[in-house]
Amino acid sequence: MEKRIGTITILIHDRQNVPAINELISGHSSIVLCRQGLPFHDRDVAVISLIVEGTMAEINALTGPLGRLEGVSSKAVVVPTR
Fold it and tell me: Cα(9)–Cα(51) distance, rounded to whole angstroms?
């Protein structure tokens, strides 16, 4: 399968899910190249941005479970690598 490089943006509205999010990201650490988090303490949201490289199956294996968590939304943007 063709590898792709891209970003995954995770918006967290329910901070109770942070341990589950961290566990999912750690479980897919082989495709995560970079992670950046930004908590908005004055708002009810936090943002995690990931740069990933992997097959679509590997990327979807991370974004699918993230999107099914209550109070969490995620979006991936990917392009083929050369």
Answer: 9
The pTM of the full predicted model, rounded to 2 decimals, is 0.91
- CA dihedral of residues 40, 26, 10, 71 (deg, nearest 10): -80
From 4, 27, 10, 12, select the one nearest 70 (Cα to Cα).
12
Which CATH number applies to 4-80: 3.30.565.10, 2.60.40.1500, 3.10.20.90, 3.30.70.1150?
3.30.70.1150
pLDDT digit string (tens) for 7-24?
Answer: 999 999 988 999 999 999
- Quote the tokens at residue 64: 């699918």
pLDDT tens per residue, range 29-70:
999 999 999 999 898 899 999 999 999 999 999 999 999 999
Cα dihedral: 19, 21, 24, 26 (round 10): -70
